[in-house]
Every structure is written in structure tokens, then in C-alpha cells.
Amino acid sequence: MRGAWTRDDAGLERALAEAVLAARAVPAQFRVAARAAYDWRTRDAELATLARDRATVPGTRRTGREDVAALRDLTFVAADLTVEVELGAERLLGQVLPRGPGRVQLQTMDGDRASAEIDALGCFVLRPVPRGCFRLHLRTAAGARVVTAWVGPGPEGAWG
User: Fold this and answer.
1) What domain of life does the native source organism fall in (predicted)?
2) Half-sphere exposure (Cβ direction) of 133: Cα atoms closer than 13 Å
3) Exposed (0-12), middle (13-18) or buried (19+): which is 116, by Cβ within 10 Å?
């Protein structure tokens, strides 16, 4: 095997350098599309659509330190599962209905992932709050597999 490459090591190095440069030149939207295509491997998971997306008025909630910040409430609905999410300044708080344990994974468009356990009441907390578009992958102990639709920041680029 060694014979073919030893005659032109410089050619091999040039070819590898060109390949690395070509990979770096791939536009970001192509990389995002490639990741989305790869995510089709979870196509057996049910898609939960966004049924409600509303910002709450600052000071109208009594949730501790976040009562002075605007919150964003999202509700995703699938055939047998509802996911309610509250996005605050410091955390993403959620509840799965019907209640029960499981696991949730937050995925960003950059491919970053964070996960948390869903407790017996169906509640979960994820930190930090994602700064860009995200979706949730949920798997319940009862066997439900759900992926939410992608959601992003509000019109002014903020979550609240």
C-alpha cells in the first residue's frame, strides 16, 4: 500500500489541504440542513406542533426572581401528549401531560444538546435558556416519543 503514496507525498498533502479548505467553505445553512436531515433518524417520534406562543406581561407572575422579567409560554400538542414550556431569563421550565416520568433533551440549531429527567409529575428544568432556535425530544416511561417543532426567539430577537 505504501508504494503509491510515497512517490508523491507532496501531492497527497496538497489534496488533504484542499479537502480541509473545501470543508471549511461549506455555508452554515448547508450544515444546518445536513443536521436536520440526519435528525430524520427519529422519524418514528411523533411531531408535537406549537399550539400556543405568548409572552406574559412583566410583573404579572409570581415565580420568584423572574417576576420582573417577561416570560414566554409555549404549548406543544401531539396526539397523546401536551408539553407546556415557560421560558424565563435563566431557565426553561416544562411539564408533560399526562404526567409521568421520562427524559427530555433540548437541541439547538447549532447541534448543542442538554438533557434532564422528567419527574413523576411530568416536570423538568433545563438551564441555561437557549439563545437561538431549539426543539425538545421527549421520551416518557409510558413509551411515548415526541419531538417538538422548532421554535425561536420572538420578533425582537428576545425570548420574552
Assistant:
1) Bacteria
2) 9
3) middle
**How many residues are given for the chain?**
160
Distance CA 121, CA 140 (A): 12
Residue with cell 411530568: 122
**Ramachandran region of residue 74, left (φ > 0), alpha (ψ -120 to 50) or beta?**
beta
User: What is the pTM (predicted TM-score) of this model?
Assistant: 0.64
- From the list 53, 29, 27, the residue with the least C-alpha distance to 149 is 53
pLDDT tens for 41-69 read: 555 677 888 999 887 545 444 555 544 45
- For residue 101, count CB atoms less than 10 angstroms from its CB and return exposed for 0-12, middle for 13-18, buried for 19 or more: middle
Do strands 145-148 and 123-126 pair parallel, antiparallel, or not at all (unpaired)? unpaired
* Distance separating alpha carbons of residues 82 and 89, to the nearest angstrom: 23
Domains present along the chain, CATH in parentheses: 2-38 (no CATH), 44-148 (2.60.40)
